[in-house]
Design a protein that fits this description.
single chain; alpha+beta; Rossmann fold; Elongation Factor Tu (Ef-tu), domain 3; Alpha-Beta Plaits; about 25% helix; globular; binds guanosine-5'-diphosphate; binds magnesium ion; hydrolase; cell membrane; EC 3.6.5.n1; ribosome binding
């Protein structure tokens, strides 16, 4: 089978620039789904994605386009637009020959537009520039084109104008895909090489592998061999997503689809691995993906210790569909048995937490996130630290190193001053300013990643009235003056409340944290003392005054239902409490160290 009529492409854009809406239009025009089945944004199928309006996982859909006598097979691979998920973007790009680069006609080039375009260029994709949402009254397509030309070096003559809402320009997109994006190369008669770009666990069918065939073909009954994991399986079903799974006899060179092979364990499939055949093994694997490195960690604990096993199972399920998420068991004196979990970024952490609660109905306590540090010990050993608990004593530390990122802000020039101020306050190092136009600029700073995970996005958004956007890349580790800041409740150090902070900020943060905790912890029958300390030196202190009264006292013994309601409410509140000694600390308090002002 020839690859002449296959086109594999993706859509890249900054978040909210209209990628999912355009994907819907493309699906609708090719009648990949009937109108009855149609619901907006078919590709974002996780409930959470729909609610939050972001695309988290890369999915793929096969479209059939008729042009006269010819039928084309177009494969659309969806990509996420958030900075946390550039790893998933990279995975999707590796399976395509071309990309539609979407830029909102009213917003212009934003931080992830630039980042994703560079990623597409690195993968040698043909880029088709598309200005979207041209129906909006405030759209300024020609200015946006000029911005694209200036920053991305994309010729504005090649650009298409589209409204996914009205459908204007959608047909020209199909024409451009066929004309400019090359059909996949590869050797149809060679030994099979297929790249695993995603996987999913299905309770009935086992692991479903998403793959792109680069050479050869894959048929039902074949014995596959996965080069990295060195496991073999017999293929039960192959097919394409339309967008529902549609079985076929085989998947051929250039095609994108799925494979089911009675694979029971998630650990037998590695995203980025190459699938070949047992009887005729390919010699060289395809270039896979670099393993994503979790940069943000936090502890996740069941509120009820009896839920530990349920939590472990839930985490295992999640990690199957999200290879960038990691977890290992840990114990905390304050919280008992739980897990240290690694994430790509803050949004990723939020999403995992929400999915856990939603899909497994367990109440969990999450500790404040931290980044991964490197410590050079006096004995010359270098250790990676992803938990404040594993910071060695001060006298054993030669050098404390933290991850640094290169962050690019895209913003209206009138807010340059405000963002520079914010970046300087977060220990940022100014690098450059580049003008997109008279009104908008790209500002580049080097910043400690740890400073970005502390409510930085919100600050940046409010400093720019919502017009600023940010993207960042890890540049490496750098030595810094860091210390571990401990919190003591009733004289006891609460391990789950320890954080790593810069020495010059330690006192201010310590003072704010105990103030904040004071607000979060309710009054007890006894006095509760809160302290912040570095080593044995206490740097801040607050006390919570005792109360004597029972909450039901104010019911005057009369109304029994009201009394019961109050007690139930109290019990409900307790669900999200953890006791430290005899002090009850609410779940919110463990995160309160995050927002410090
Ligand atoms: P994504 O984050 O890139 O997937 O963006 P979405 O497709 O979710 O779109 C973000 C918002 O823009 C949604 O509220 C859409 O309804 C809206 N939108 C998308 N395309 C158009 C368009 O062509 N015209 C108008 N007026 N709104 C659009
Ligand atoms: Mg979307």
């Amino acid at each position: 089978m020839s690859t002449e009529r296959i086109r594999n492409f993706c859509i890249i854009a900054h978040i909210d620039h209209g990628k999912s809406t355009l994907a819907d239009r493309l699906l609708e025009r090719t009648q990949a789904i009937s109108t009855r089945e149609f619901r907006n944004q078919m590709l974002d199928d996780m409930d959470l994605e729909r609610e939050r309006g972001i695309t988290i996982k890369a999915s793929a859909v096969a479209l059939t386009l008729r042009r006269g006598e010819t039928e084309y097979n177009l494969n659309l691979i969806d990509t996420p637009g958030h900075v946390d998920f550039s790893y998933e973007v990279s995975r999707s790009l590796g399976s395509c020959e071309g990309a539609l680069l979407l830029v909102d006609a009213s917003q212009g080039v934003e931080a992830q537009t630039v980042a994703n375009t560079y990623l597409a260029m690195e993968h040698d994709l043909v880029i088709i520039p598309v200005v979207s949402k041209i129906d909006l009254p405030q759209s300024r397509p020609y200015e946006v084109l000029a911005e694209m030309e200036k920053t991305l070096g994309i010729s504005s003559e090649e650009a298409l104008m589209v409204s996914a809402k009205s459908g204007e320009g959608v047909d020209q997109i199909f024409d451009a895909i066929i004309k400019y994006i090359p059909p996949p190369k590869g050797d149809p008669s060679g030994p099979l090489r297929a790249l695993i770009f995603d996987s999913e666990y299905d309770a009935y069918r086992g692991v479903i592998i998403y793959l792109r065939v680069f050479d050869g073909s894959l048929k039902v009954g074949d014995e596959i061999f996965m080069i990295k994991t060195r496991r073999s399986f017999k293929v039960e079903e192959v097919g394409v997503f339309k967008p529902k799974m549609a079985p076929k006899n085989g998947l051929f060179t250039g095609e994108v689809g799925y494979c089911i092979a009675n694979i029971k364990s998630i650990h037998d499939v590695k995203v980025g691995d190459t699938v070949t055949l047992n009887k005729e093994k390919a010699e060289k694997p395809l270039t896979g993906y670099r393993q994503p490195i979790p940069m943000v960690y936090c502890g996740i604990y069941p509120v009820d210790n009896a839920d530990f096993k349920v939590l472990r199972e839930a985490l295992e399920r999640l990690s199957l569909n999200d290879s960038s998420f990691s977890f290992i068991p840990e114990t905390s004196q304050a919280l008992g048995f739980g897990f240290r979990c690694g994430f790509l970024g803050l949004l990723h952490m939020d999403i995992v937490q929400e999915r856990l609660e939603r899909e497994s109905h367990i109440n969990i306590v999450q500790t404040a996130p931290n980044v991964t540090y490197e410590i050079l010990k006096t004995n010359k050993e270098v250790i990676r630290v992803d938990n404040p608990e594993s910071v060695p004593p001060v006298n054993e530390i030669d050098e404390f190193r933290e991850p640094m990122v290169r962050s690019s802000f895209v913003l209206p020039t009138e807010y340059l001053g405000a963002i520079m101020q914010l970046a300087e306050a977060r220990r940022g190092r100014y690098k450059s300013t580049e003008y997109l136009s008279e009104k908008r600029a790209i500002l580049v700073y080097e910043l400690p990643l740890a400073e970005i995970i502390f409510d930085f996005f919100d600050k940046m958004k409010s400093a720019t009235r919502g017009y600023g956007t940010l993207d960042y890349d890890l540049i490496g580790y750098e030595s810094a003056d860091l210390v571990k800041l401990d919190i003591l409740v009733g004289g006891k150090r609460v391990d789950a409340l320890s954080t790593i902070v810069h020495k010059k900020d330690a006192e201010v943060r310590g003072r704010k944290q105990v103030k904040k905790l004071k607000k979060e912890i309710s009054r007890h029958l006894f006095e509760v003392v809160l302290q912040a300390a570095i080593g044995s030196r206490v740097i801040a202190r607050e006390t919570i005054k005792p109360i004597a009264k029972n909450v039901t006292a104010k019911c005057y013994g009369g109304d029994i239902t009201r009394k019961r309601k109050l007690l139930e409410k109290q019990k409900e509140g307790k669900k999200r409490m953890k006791s430290v000694g005899n002090v009850e600390i609410p779940q919110k308090a463990f995160l309160s160290v995050l927002s410090i002002d």
